């Protein structure tokens, strides 16, 4: 095992011209321009701090609840205020802390672990961050105006339709939808980051386990969040425009919401849990002083959990009266997921047993996590048994269970991770003494708070009640929980103090302070803005332990991209399986465009909440315009030369298009998420068919056949011509390209108009029946996507005429064609469902 | 450890590998799961009538399960063959094409095993539940 050599140069001073240029290129902007930074180190830090603030906010809400519940019949909070607070506690913890903190930490650390200078789409990260910030402040702010949502973090209708006239539920639906988009943006960034931005030589069997987990979790976000976005659309359409998706008197059904919510909601639990397991997978080998035991088994566990977690959602709906066979199917999957979950924990234990364990604060939190999570996992297996769940459902037993899983599985590893990775962010170390004090306060406080809840629940105390009468046996247990909550909070205060206390006089942390083997610990102390001095060739899973002289050679600039001759920010793009260098990717530098686009996008959602349609539309136009400027000025730019020497005699292209390029992958991944949202809407259509004896109802004329088919044919023609235009561009047949693509755009507009005419001409009224509403919604979704398709076609026409797209430099039209593959599928399915299915049934 | 030429094993070229192969068995589990769930839900809601009999659904579960087990078996067998036929020790942690090849085979096999167990868990429901209620 090699300890990295200390850097001989004076702190922070560049050693040569190469270093000087690299420093200048990657320098963080100063003054007010600091906020234009898009580099992962800044955006990741803001993301982490912001989600940490939301965590503290939600934690204070929890304390308020515990004060209210400390004694029976208390009047500290009114019932209405309590409802707002418990709703916000759950919503903020899940949407504004648990998911964003994973994105934050990954944006911050993943490039370091991959020896990359940055992630491939820095502006997308910044856009996601500002969306998160704006949406989060909007949602949290509602509590100050007594206007917060109060339907629980799952927002079940009819509670959130018929019984909540205020704007609370709208704030939840629109504010959090906005944040869900930010999560999908982060997922795109992280998937492409893991697959395409690894250092040369880091084959798929050598990537740090964190990378595997991020790949799985980001993939889960892509398939889990879109059903919720689809549900949000349905619920908001019902609230804003009276489209009766969940109103049984007009053919709707509240259970549809529960399905869509929990198709998201259960994978969500693993979306927040797996990144913390990923932190464990990085921390455990370091302190066991040995590589992880069972790398392949941990990969199995990550991928297996990712898949199985999608088969559990109905276990949140065991008491809704579904057939026993359905309960059985979901109960079976709920039991099966315990297998991969257990495997990874056994691998960690085996690693600790195989190595020579060195005690540390991060490891203490890992132990706390293992014990707590296993306890929560076992009560999880209990509630996965349907008959037991019928008894425990909606009681404090479930509150106890979920907090053991979430705090044990997610929060404790995160605190351990904070102590572990703090030097990589500030170049200083946290106090081991304060860490140990915090550990005991948190572990003891947590168990005093949540262990009694299992008994409170078994005694019959329901969840989400603002108070309870005396004499039912709840008093002592609740009082103990409240005392524990304050002990727990004091532990968090100690951690907070350790993080924010001034450390100016403390020395910098030594380089690689924990003697870890993974690449991120190359970071120099004090930290340098370039991420890594030169991008190395990796030959091991623990390169700092196994590769002799690696650190020295990297510091001397002996690997790839040691310089920035053109003063442009560059990183390497490599192949998916073997990380073979494929491209020298130029990534953008500081810009305010993501912030402005996020503000405009936020306007659409925030003005929409208040039904201020004109400002909302103007904001939408502003967002489209800003994003177009961002694309036009910063993506797929024709470089000044075709290829560049990146070092070690390797010549790499600067511009590539198609499946090797990061842009193509981003489009593909985004469209997978988009297609999932669309499929969720189609699921809604067939859900109604399942529950109704007559669907489509006899009373509805339906959209007919002619107009949908005309619309479908025109759009499929446009699809064919878009592909033809892509080929013509490649063949450099300029005139034919313009003609074909312009015709395709016209055909798309015509097709969209014909599709719109279908429900309009037969007089379908979306407020009359859920059938009419779902047909209109499918048509609306397709027409909206067609309009985006037209915008893309026009964009490509403009790009070619301005000389930014050529026969050789065709990333724009290649990615647009990829979008159109998905659009064609959407069109075919929409027409098939709305026009074809009524003919069959 | 760098002495081995990168293409010492047939089919260990990067262009012959696919990351998607490891996801096949879990995807088959997912398809089997959804098929069972949808068949049961639609049958019980729309077609079971007053008898609430689950007999056709149980047969469907059996057919789906046979199909799924066969597909998972094939995928797992391909994975296992990669481990067995790749020369050298059974490790998969070195910087060699055959290690990467073996690793992908290893993960494919493990995921096939997990998917098999999870599929049989779901199929077992048909053995125990006799009616829609």
Automatic annotation (TrEMBL), chain A:
<keyword id="KW-1133">Transmembrane helix</keyword>
<dbReference type="InterPro" id="IPR000298">
    <property type="entry name" value="Cyt_c_oxidase-like_su3"/>
</dbReference>
<feature type="transmembrane region" description="Helical">
    <location>
        <begin position="269"/>
        <end position="288"/>
    </location>
</feature>
<keyword id="KW-0560">Oxidoreductase</keyword>
<feature type="transmembrane region" description="Helical">
    <location>
        <begin position="437"/>
        <end position="457"/>
    </location>
</feature>
<protein>
    <recommendedName>
        <fullName>cytochrome-c oxidase</fullName>
        <ecNumber>7.1.1.9</ecNumber>
    </recommendedName>
</protein>
<feature type="transmembrane region" description="Helical">
    <location>
        <begin position="361"/>
        <end position="384"/>
    </location>
</feature>
<dbReference type="GO" id="GO:0005886">
    <property type="term" value="C:plasma membrane"/>
</dbReference>
<feature type="domain" description="Cytochrome oxidase subunit I profile">
    <location>
        <begin position="26"/>
        <end position="539"/>
    </location>
</feature>
<feature type="transmembrane region" description="Helical">
    <location>
        <begin position="43"/>
        <end position="65"/>
    </location>
</feature>
<keyword id="KW-0813">Transport</keyword>
<feature type="transmembrane region" description="Helical">
    <location>
        <begin position="207"/>
        <end position="229"/>
    </location>
</feature>
<feature type="transmembrane region" description="Helical">
    <location>
        <begin position="773"/>
        <end position="797"/>
    </location>
</feature>
<feature type="transmembrane region" description="Helical">
    <location>
        <begin position="85"/>
        <end position="110"/>
    </location>
</feature>
<feature type="transmembrane region" description="Helical">
    <location>
        <begin position="171"/>
        <end position="195"/>
    </location>
</feature>
<dbReference type="InterPro" id="IPR023616">
    <property type="entry name" value="Cyt_c_oxase-like_su1_dom"/>
</dbReference>
<feature type="transmembrane region" description="Helical">
    <location>
        <begin position="738"/>
        <end position="761"/>
    </location>
</feature>
<keyword id="KW-0408">Iron</keyword>
<keyword id="KW-0186">Copper</keyword>
<dbReference type="GO" id="GO:0006119">
    <property type="term" value="P:oxidative phosphorylation"/>
</dbReference>
<dbReference type="InterPro" id="IPR014241">
    <property type="entry name" value="Cyt_c_oxidase_su1_bac"/>
</dbReference>
<dbReference type="InterPro" id="IPR000883">
    <property type="entry name" value="Cyt_C_Oxase_1"/>
</dbReference>
UniProtKB/TrEMBL annotation, chain B:
<protein>
    <submittedName>
        <fullName>Uncharacterized protein</fullName>
    </submittedName>
</protein>
<feature type="transmembrane region" description="Helical">
    <location>
        <begin position="20"/>
        <end position="43"/>
    </location>
</feature>
<feature type="transmembrane region" description="Helical">
    <location>
        <begin position="103"/>
        <end position="129"/>
    </location>
</feature>
<feature type="transmembrane region" description="Helical">
    <location>
        <begin position="55"/>
        <end position="78"/>
    </location>
</feature>
<keyword id="KW-1133">Transmembrane helix</keyword>
<keyword id="KW-0812">Transmembrane</keyword>
<keyword id="KW-0472">Membrane</keyword>
